[in-house]
Amino acid sequence: MAGGRLAVTQRAAGVLTAPAGDGIGSRAVAPAPAARDFQLGAPLWAARVVWAVHLGVVLLILTGWALPWRPVVWAVVAVTAAAQSSWLLCGHRCALTVLEEMLRSARPRANRRVPSAPDEPTNFTVDLLSRLVDGPAPQRWTNLAIYAVTWLAFATALARLMFS
What we know:
The chain is mainly alpha-helical. The protein is 57% helix and 4% strand. The protein is built from 6 helices and 3 strands. The chain has helices at residues 33-40, 42-63, 70-89, 95-103, 124-133, 139-162, and strands at residues 9-10, 16-17, 28-29. A 3-stranded antiparallel beta sheet has the order 1-2-3, with no helix packed on it. A hairpin with a 5-residue loop joins strand 1 (9-10) and strand 2 (16-17). The chain is globular.
């Protein structure tokens, strides 16, 4: 260590190592999160845009049926039908989740929580709930809640359109 600072070099593989001559040996040091994000470029930003759109869809399903504007209620009916269809076609996973994971496939997400059933892949809502409660969210119960809320929003929005 020269001058109290650790000299760090970067290798082509993306792993940072400390030089052997500084008294601490040559050991791997994880790169800073900002450095990892910068290295990925466009796919990471596209994945973040998909995540934001996904959050918007979830908020629309949760609140859109209660809004007074008829076009928004129609949008809830269309979005819930499309979401349930894509959910069934993608093996009980949302198409937006699959797209986001494909865009993030260049690096695994280090902050992703382990689901309660490790053999099942996480979905957007499980990941979001895990972040909110700062622990693993039960995958099975979360999936049941997703089905219930989505069908309830669909039925309520459809009833509002039929009887108003």
